[in-house]
C-alpha cells in the first residue's frame, strides 16, 4: 500500500470587490481565488443576505447586491467554508424626517410640515414621497415636490375640511427610492374653528 494523502482544503479568498458601494440591484464583481469552476451549492452573501449570481468562475464572481442588505462584509461560501470577511460593501442610503413633529389646525384650514431627505452614504437617486397611512377623513395632503434627490426638502401641506373630525391624528410619510424605504410620523391636531 502506498502512502495515504489527505487533500488540503483551502478556503475561498476574496481579494477585491468592485464597486465597493452601491444600491440593492447593482452588479458587483468579486475577485479572488478558490471559488470553484462553477457555483453549484456555493453562495455569496452581503452582510448575511444571500445574493443572486450572474457569473461564476474560480477567480471571479458577478453578483447582484440583494434587497434588504445593509453595509457589511461580502463573503463567499464554498463547500461550507467561508472566505475572509474584510471586503466591505457600503449600501447607499438616505434619511427621512419631518418637522415640526406636531401641528394644530382648525377645521377648514391648512398647515404645513417640512420633509427633509438626507444622504447617509452618497445616495444618488430620487426618492418618491407618499402617505402610508393615518390622514383623517376629509383632509387632503400634497407635497411641493413628490420626488426629491437627497439632500433636499419638500413642503407637505395638509388641508382639512369643515367636516374633518376634531382630534389628534398620527400619519405616516413614506419615502421610496433605490431599493430603500424609510418612514417618518407626524401628528396633526384638528381643532374646532374659533367661535367669534
> Terminal Cα separation, in Å?
109 Å
Uncertain runs are none
- Which sequence of SSEs, written as H and E, runs from N to C? EEEEEEEEEEEEEEEEEEE
Strand content: over 45%
Number of separate helices: 0
Mean pLDDT: 93
Largest sheet: 6 strands, mixed
Radius of gyration: 25 Å
Helix share of residues?
under 10%
| Silhouette | rod-shaped
Structural class: mainly beta
Number of strands: 19
Provide tags for this entry.
196 residues, mainly beta, 6-stranded mixed beta sheet, 5-stranded mixed beta sheet
Model description:
The protein is mainly beta. Helix content is 0%, strand content 56%. The protein contains no helices and 19 strands. The chain has strands at residues 13-18, 21-22, 27-33, 43-46, 49-50, 52-56, 60-64, 72-78, 81-82, 88-91, 94-99, 102-106, 110-119, 127-133, 140-143, 147-148, 152-159, 167-177, 180-191. Strands 2, 4, 5, 8, 9 and 10 form a 6-stranded mixed beta sheet that branches. The chain has a 5-stranded mixed beta sheet with strand order 12-19-18-14-16, with no helix packed on it. A 4-stranded antiparallel beta sheet has the order 1-3-7-6, with no helix packed on it. It is rod-shaped and about 105 Å long. The relative contact order is 0.18. The mean pLDDT is 93.
Amino acid at each position: 500500500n502506498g502512502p495515504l494523502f489527505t487533500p488540503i482544503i483551502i478556503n475561498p479568498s476574496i481579494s477585491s470587490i468592485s464597486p465597493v458601494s452601491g444600491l440593492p440591484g447593482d452588479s458587483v464583481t468579486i475577485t479572488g481565488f478558490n471559488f470553484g469552476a462553477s457555483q453549484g451549492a456555493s453562495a455569496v452573501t452581503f452582510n448575511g443576505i444571500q445574493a443572486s449570481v450572474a457569473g461564476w468562475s474560480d477567480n471571479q464572481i458577478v453578483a447582484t447586491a440583494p434587497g434588504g442588505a445593509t453595509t457589511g462584509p461580502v463573503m463567499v461560501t464554498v463547500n461550507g467554508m467561508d472566505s475572509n470577511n474584510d471586503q466591505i460593501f457600503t449600501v447607499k442610503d438616505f434619511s427621512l424626517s419631518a418637522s415640526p413633529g406636531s401641528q394644530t389646525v382648525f377645521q377648514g384650514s391648512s398647515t404645513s410640515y417640512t420633509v427633509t431627505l438626507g444622504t447617509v452614504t452618497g445616495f444618488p437617486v430620487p426618492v418618491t414621497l407618499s402617505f402610508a397611512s393615518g390622514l383623517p377623513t376629509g383632509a387632503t395632503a400634497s407635497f411641493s415636490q413628490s420626488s426629491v434627490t437627497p439632500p433636499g426638502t419638500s413642503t407637505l401641506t395638509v388641508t382639512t375640511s369643515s367636516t374633518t373630525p376634531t382630534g389628534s391624528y398620527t400619519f405616516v410619510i413614506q419615502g421610496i427610492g433605490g431599493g430603500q424605504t424609510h418612514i417618518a410620523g407626524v401628528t396633526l391636531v384638528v381643532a374646532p374653528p374659533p367661535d367669534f
